[in-house]
Design a protein that fits this description.
Elements: E1 10-14, H1 19-30, E2 34-39, H2 42-51, E3 56-59, H3 65-79, E4 84-87, H4 105-135, E5 141-145, H5 158-178, E6 184-189, H6 196-201, H7 213-232, E7 242-244
Parallel strand pairs: 1-2, 1-4, 2-3, 4-5, 5-6
Antiparallel strand pairs: 6-7
Helix pairs in contact: 1-7, 3-4, 4-5
Length: 245
């Protein structure tokens, strides 16, 4: 049931065709937001658009430098600006997971390209739109999806953990540098979720013990709402997520 609590908020989500990304597309649309989502594969984008006809699907790979500006142009054109950028697309690196000593340089580079360099490039390409949102007092937000692997050195998760740690610190620096423009940046750890990527990483995991992506999407939507209320001077409400500025 649509509640319109985020009515007309302009949101872009990378990795929007599966897992948490798809959950966010559905949840934010249900709350009245205008949503553009990005994913690499055209067939998955088209399939998601069939389920979410109000969303704007964009085919592109954030790990590829040449895709960034076309993605950014399409986001701003589809939404007529941007208020929230969710850098959600992620890569595990090598699959099956292996120790760092057995990780090929190319696999580490692939994880860094998707999880760090891609969000950096896309954020940079969209800073003008986010700054315009700030001038309109729309409380723009960069929301980077992190992981507890950014803090805990899990064996065999090296490429992923290193990249997520870099993303978390990148978020902190963005926040310090952009505060004068009125743009906020946070990193969010949604917890272990029952997603295709988690299944690749841990094939024998107990799915019943994992969080549903739809539930994590609700928590993130509530976090966005809470920050909007706080900016507007309304009472805040704590979100049940690990949030790092």
């Amino acid at each position: 049931m649509t509640d319109h609590s985020l009515k007309d908020l302009r949101v872009a989500i990378t990795g929007g065709t599966s897992g948490l990304g798809r959950g966010l597309v559905l949840e934010l649309l249900d709350r009245g937001a205008r949503v553009a989502f990005v994913a690499r594969h055209r067939d998955e984008v088209e399939r998601t658009m069939l389920d979410c006809p109000a969303a704007h699907g964009i085919v592109g790979d954030v790990s590829q430098k040449e895709d960034i500006h076309p993605i950014a142009i399409q986001i701003v054109g589809a939404l007529d600006g941007l208020d929230v950028l969710v850098n959600n697309a992620s890569s595990l690196g090598p699959v099956p997971l292996v120790p760092l000593a057995d990780t090929d340089c190319e696999d580490l580079e692939a994880a860094l390209a998707t999880n760090v360099v891609g969000p950096f490039r896309l954020t940079k390409a969209l800073l003008g739109a986010l700054a315009a949102s700030a001038r309109e007092a729309r409380a723009p937000l960069i929301l980077n999806i992190s992981s507890d692997a950014a803090e805990t050195p899990y064996p065999n998760w090296g490429a992923y953990g290193v990249s997520k740690a870099a993303l978390r610190h990148l978020t902190r620096i963005w926040r310090e540098e952009l505060v004068g423009l009125g743009i906020d940046a946070v990193a969010v750890d949604p917890g272990d979720m029952d997603t295709p990527m988690h299944a690749l990483a841990v094939p024998d995991a107990d799915r019943d013990a994992l969080k549903r992506p739809a539930d994590a999407a609700v928590e993130i939507a509530e976090l966005i709402e809470a920050r909007l209320r706080a900016t507007a001077g309304a009472p805040d409400r704590a979100a049940s997520l690990a949030v790092s500025p």
